[in-house]
Amino acid sequence: MVLSILRKMDPVTKFSLTLQILGLTLCALSLLCSAFTFQDYSDALGKSILFFEGQRSGRLPPNQQLTWRGNSGLSDGSSYHVDLVGGYYDAGDNVKFGLPMAFTTTLLSWSVIEFGSSMQNHLENAKAAIRWGTDYLLKASTATPGALYVQVGDPNMDHHCWERPEDMDTPRNVYKVSTQNPGSDVAAETAAALAAASVVFKDSDPSYSTKLLKTAMKVFDFADKYRGSYSDSLNSVVCPFYCSYSGYLDELLWGASWLHRASQNSSYLAYIQSNGHILGADDDDYSFSWDDKRAGTKVLLSKGFLEKNTQEFQLYKAHSDNYICSLIPGSSSFQAQYTAGLVNEPLVALFFTLRLFSSRKLASKGSVYNTIFLQGGFSTKQVRAIFNM
């Protein structure tokens, strides 16, 4: 919306407003970040991506940066006559949980799609982290017709002892969902991960991208045709560790949305239009996680409305607005609860700034700045110091 407003302004006003937004953004960020440099943030991004190398399962590549981590889980799936070597361990455990792994892969891909051009020398490592996940998800999706392998390792046994994956001696049981024991949630999330990753690799590795997208379509069809929650099918194997508390409807809409984004196939647009209302399109939700995808879906589809004027997605933009507003201090709608101190985050102030500008509430400089920062929890002294008021 901000961009659409700017386009309608005369050049002088547009330039002036752009400078105000830029200046306000930089000043807001400077409250917390004045002591940090670009290099500090680059290092933080690099270390965030490096974390995934420490979670790798399988035979590690020659360019592995964390050399203290060794090969592990090299026989995963072998007792079931399938190859499930690779993927990621979960949260310091030695279990490979399919639902959070797929969600992580989806979000890594989304990050690269949106911000890859700013990642500079970290981009290739980010793409490698995605590929490590999708290589495994491809195996899990194609090993057995009519089934999706969703977990390796017995979490109940694994949690009895904390040990290095290179030394683990706990059972490497394999679990799957099938036509008889469905898991629409984990299957649709897997489809979302593969579809999102196909966008990442579309230019750099077209053949791999095509493989990802084709597999995503098949897995989504499986998820949609054989409906049910994997928590019901696998019970104590996944609960209470990664129960699908929100059900599977949110993942179906999320998966279809990513397939629409990746393929531009009109059938997915039709699916979203026909099924959206029963899959959560009308719900306002104020959290986004490995379990509940509704808020993320609204934001993803909103981009289709804002960037391509896909009118069918206007509803999703309205719900996205509600979600963003819930994060803004002083909002008249539902208010997210913050841990003490976090309400002063400059990022929240920045969101509030953009919301004000986008809704054309351009009052005097002083009133706008005061509204943004005083409602954001900043003191009058801070505001006046920043803007020389």
From TrEMBL:
It comes from the Eukaryota. Its EC number is 3.2.1.4. The keyword Hydrolase applies. Keywords: Carbohydrate metabolism, Cellulose degradation, Glycosidase, Hydrolase, Polysaccharide degradation. The keyword Hydrolase applies. Residues 41-341 form the Glycoside hydrolase family domain. It holds the Pfam family Glyco_hydro_9. It catalyses: Endohydrolysis of (1->4)-beta-D-glucosidic linkages in cellulose, lichenin and cereal beta-D-glucans. One of its GO terms (molecular function) is cellulase activity. GO terms for biological process: cellulose catabolic process. InterPro entries: 6-hairpin_glycosidase_sf, 6hp_glycosidase-like_sf, Glyco_hydro_9. Belongs to the glycosyl hydrolase 9 (cellulase E) family. This is cellulase.
